[in-house]
């Protein structure tokens, strides 16, 4: 994934932010909405697109468009930077190769210790019983 080319493919839209804020909210479009068209991306290979489509399935629309938004800051520029960072982190996580899990073996000493403890507990319980004549 080439970060520079993928950032050029992003579509941004400035929208009025919701919530409290008085006149600033009413007249300034500080909220940034990012949309990324996954199937039409030229910076991702077909394998990367398929992998991203699977891993980001819950965040994609029916047309496989990823939509992110940010209205954390009063500045539109800072919101744009935040949403770009969030997008790049999300794509990095989606395209990261997962290492296969190697099953570990229980060490022989641990098995031996467990069996010895069981034997000791058994002896203690045996000694509590009434003698059998």
Task: Walk me through what this model shows.
This protein is an alpha+beta fold. The protein has helices spanning 3-8, 23-27, 46-55, 76-95, 108-128, and strands at residues 11-15, 31-37, 65-70. It is elongated.
Q: In a nutshell, what does this entry contain?
A:
With 133 residues, the protein is α+β, with helices and mostly antiparallel strands.
- Alpha plus pi helix count: 5
Overall structural class, as computed from helix and strand content, comes to alpha+beta
Major β-sheet profile: 3 strands, antiparallel
Shape: elongated
Helix content, binned percent = 40-55%
Strand content: 5-15%
* Subunit organisation of the chains: single chain
The count of β-strands is 3
The appropriate CATH architecture of one domain is: 2-Layer Sandwich
Mean pLDDT equals 90
CATH level-1 class of one domain? Alpha Beta
SSE ordering: HEHEHEHH
Straight-line distance between termini: 81 Å
Q: Rg, please?
A: 29 Å
> What is the fold named in CATH at topology level of one domain?
Double Stranded RNA Binding Domain
Give the low-confidence spans.
none
In the sheet with the most strands, the strands line up as: 1-2-3
Q: Strands, helices and their partners?
A:
Blueprint (H helix, E strand, L loop, with lengths): L2 H6 L2 E5 L7 H5 L3 E7 L8 H10 L9 E6 L5 H20 L12 H21 L5
């Amino acid at each position: 994934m080439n970060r520079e080319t993928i950032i050029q493919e992003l579509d941004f839209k400035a929208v009025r932010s919701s919530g409290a804020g008085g006149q600033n909210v009413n007249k300034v479009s500080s909220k940034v909405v990012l949309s990324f068209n996954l199937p039409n991306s030229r910076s991702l290979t077909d394998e990367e697109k398929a992998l991203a489509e699977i891993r980001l399935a819950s965040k994609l629309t029916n047309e496989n468009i990823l939509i992110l938004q940010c209205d954390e800051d009063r500045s539109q520029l800072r919101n744009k930077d935040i949403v770009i960072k969030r997008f790049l982190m999300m794509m990095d996580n989606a395209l990261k190769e997962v290492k296969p899990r190697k099953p570990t073996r229980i060490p022989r000493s641990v098995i031996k210790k467990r069996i010895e403890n069981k034997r000791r507990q058994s002896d203690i319980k045996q000694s509590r019983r009434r003698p059998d004549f």
